[in-house]
Amino acid sequence: MGVHERITTTVSTKGQVILPKAIREQKHWATGTKLIVEETDEGVLLKAAPVFAATNIESVFGSLRSTKPALSIDEMNMVISEEAKRRARIDTNIVVRLLTADDKKQAKAARSIVDGDEIFLGVTVLLEAEWVLRAGYGFAPDEIARALRGLAGLPGMLVEEPAHMALALDWMEHGMDFADALHLARSAQCTEFLTFDRRFAKRAAKLDAIPVVVP
Q1: pLDDT at 85
Q2: DSSP3 helix / strand / coil % (the chain, rounded to 5)
Q3: 24: which of 29, 49, 102, 117 fits an S-S bond (Cβ 3.0–4.6 Å)?
Q4: How many CA within 13 A on the CB side of residue 159?
Q5: What is the pLDDT of residues 77-96, one digit of tens each?
């Protein structure tokens, strides 16, 4: 699409407008993308809203306080290995230690790594971190979602598939397993999601997602 090319669209009776496909593809605005509507001197400006709200290291450091003894690195790895093969970009235990701050030496090192640096936060790391925080520490889904959003909002934090991750965290707070929510969020371009898990399908039916079908 040319820079100066103009395309018209029509406002519906409900105040809705359809954005041309070429523009959506150029801007990578997938279904569910939240847009900021801003009035300017030249008209109305649309721009993608940040997926995660900005945070700071003080609000993230130690944001998940546990009454349980600090998990060792071996114990974290044990929890992870019970659910899936361990994969890491920045290691999962760095994320967990940063959020729990339950081992002073390692927490200080984790904070030093993350604070002010550009960090890539992979999907698999966040998935493993959720497993450890839930199965190892016993934190509730809303506590974990709040902490992971805070982590994702740190300056310099590059989250892999941020829109999918944000959607999965929202769905986790509504009762869906985080792994299931992530599978579903990453399948948004498909016509349906097939599973034998009836509970997953029942929970997904209450959400604004593609159909989850039990064969």
Answers
A1: 40
A2: 45, 10, 45
A3: 29
A4: 22
A5: 677 656 434 333 578 999 99
Identify the pLDDT of residue 81: 59
Pick the closest to residue 79 from 93, 94, 62, 99 (CA basis).
93
pLDDT at 116: 72
Token pair, residue 96, equals 């967990």
Tell me the CA distances in angstroms from 181 to 22, 171, 187, 193, 208, one per residue in order.
Answer: 29, 6, 10, 11, 12
pLDDT beneath 50, residues of the chain: 2, 83-88
**Could you identify the residue written with the tokens 């659910």?**
83
Roughly how many angstroms between the first and final C-alpha of the chain, as a whole number?
42
Domain annotation for the chain: domains and CATH numbers:
17-50 (no CATH), 86-160 (3.40.50.1010), 175-214 (no CATH)
Q: Is residue 171 packed enough to be buried (19+ CB in 10 Å), middle (13-18) or exposed (0-12)?
A: buried
| pLDDT reported for residue 74 | 82
